[in-house]
Amino acid sequence: MARTKKSRVLRMMFCDFCGADQGLRAILIRGRDEVHICDQCVAKCAEMVIEEHRKQELALEPTEPGDPGPTAGEAPTLGDA
Question: Residues near 4 by Cβ (< 8 Å), separated by ≥ 6?
Answer without folding.
Answer: none
